[in-house]
């Protein structure tokens, strides 16, 4: 298939390599300086990994042009409902995931299962850490937000997450660390006076995120609607 890369940074380049290895061609490489190219190409799908300030307009243009779009950019989700409405209005296809790696999506399920097991054991205090490279624009990571939302679904005594340490028992603290070259590490910790329970996902490279996004693009090209990893993985 013919794939448009919208955003051609660390992720765009890794996605390009994996897409070519899987026999696809690249319809366009859209970056800050060649925005108009999207109007002049034929693409079966667009894969959008750009910047929190650019994602909304990039995705909107793809939907308006009738190009199914797989978006991985984090840090712009307050405007996602507008894109969902537009997708329905235009009968388009929009897929969003805060993390496209298979391992992280398994980790999301384990996280929810653990939270559901611990909902009655309030002696365990939950906290999240996320560690990423120093070029990351947003904090906390989209993945950490998905993990926190997964916990909030099950722990009735927790009301929201905050991106700092907190002594408010109703809040889930997410601490963000920025260390050179780290592709993405997430830790969920339950701490009690007696013992601790920890689950951790460590990405060694960006390959897992990129492979997941290309596989979703292969899957979405003949689909319609607002879609996510639960629709794709069905587990
Ligand atoms: N969902 C997932 O699985 C994953 C999500 N991500 C997310 O993807 C996003 C990109 O990550 P990454 O590739 O590491 O970031 P990079 O900074 O390496 O690349 C972003 C690219 O987008 C370009 N860009 C900026 N504005 C626009 C625009 N208006 N149109 C098109 N391109 C634009 C930048 O250009 P310039 O350099 O000139 O500014 C840059 O080339 C981030 O939000 C990150 O959190 C990352 C990994 C996995
Ligand atoms: O910016 C990154 O690099 C990553 N961003 C995503 C996030 O915010 O969760 C996914 C992954 O952790 C890498």
Poorly predicted runs are: none
Distance between the termini: 26 Å
Please identify the structural class as seen in this structure: alpha/beta
The averaged pLDDT comes out at 97
Please give the number of β-strands: 11
- Number of folding domains? 2
**Into which percent range does the helicity of residues fall?**
25-40%
Sequence of strands across the biggest β-sheet? 2-1-3-4-5-11
Tell me the CATH topology of the largest domain: Rossmann fold
Structure, described:
This protein has about 240 residues and is of the alpha/beta class. It folds into 2 domains: about 1-100 and about 205-235, NAD(P)-binding Rossmann-like Domain (Rossmann fold), CATH 3.40.50.720; about 100-200, Dihydrodipicolinate Reductase, domain 2, CATH 3.30.360. The chain has 7 helices and 11 strands. It has helices at about 10-20, 55-65, 80-90, 100-120, 140-150, 205-220, 230-235, and strands at about 1-5, 25-30, 45-50, 70, 95, 125-130, 160, 170-180, 185-190, 195-200, 225. The protein has a 6-stranded parallel β-sheet with strand order 2-1-3-4-5-11, sandwiched between helices. A 5-stranded mixed β-sheet has the order 7-8-6-9-10, covered by helices on one side. α4 (about 100-120) packs parallel to α5. The longest helix has 17 residues, at about 100-120. The mean pLDDT is about 95. It binds NADPH dihydro-nicotinamide-adenine-dinucleotide phosphate and the ligand O=C(O)C1=N[C@H](C(=O)O)C[C@H](O)C1. NADPH dihydro-nicotinamide-adenine-dinucleotide phosphate binds next to α1.
């Amino acid at each position: 298939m013919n794939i448009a890369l919208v955003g051609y940074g660390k992720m765009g380049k890794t996605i390009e390599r994996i897409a070519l290895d899987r026999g696809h061609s690249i319809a366009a490489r859209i970056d800050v300086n060649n925005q108009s190219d999207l109007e002049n190409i034929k693409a079966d799908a667009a894969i959008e990994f750009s910047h929190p300030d650019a994602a909304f307009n990039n995705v909107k243009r793809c939907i308006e042009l009738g190009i199914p779009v797989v978006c991985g950019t984090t840090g712009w989700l307050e405007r996602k409902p507008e894109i969902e409405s537009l997708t329905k209005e235009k009968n388009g296809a929009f897929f969003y995931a805060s993390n496209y790696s298979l391992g992280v999506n398994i980790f999301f399920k384990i996280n929810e299962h653990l939270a559901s097991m611990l909902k009655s054991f309030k002696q365990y205090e939950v906290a999240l850490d996320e560690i990423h490279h120093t070029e990351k624009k947003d904090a906390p990571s989209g993945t950490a937000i998905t993990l926190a939302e997964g916990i909030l679904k099950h722990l009735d005594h927790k009301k929201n997450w905050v991106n700092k340490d907190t002594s408010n028992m109703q809040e889930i603290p997410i601490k963000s660390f920025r260390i050179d070259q780290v592709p993405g590490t997430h830790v969920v910790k339950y701490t009690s006076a007696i013992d601790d329970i920890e689950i951790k996902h460590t990405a060694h490279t960006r390959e897992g995120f990129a492979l997941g996004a290309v596989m979703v693009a292969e899957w979405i090209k003949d689909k319609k609607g607002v879609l996510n990893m639960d629709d794709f993985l069905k587990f």
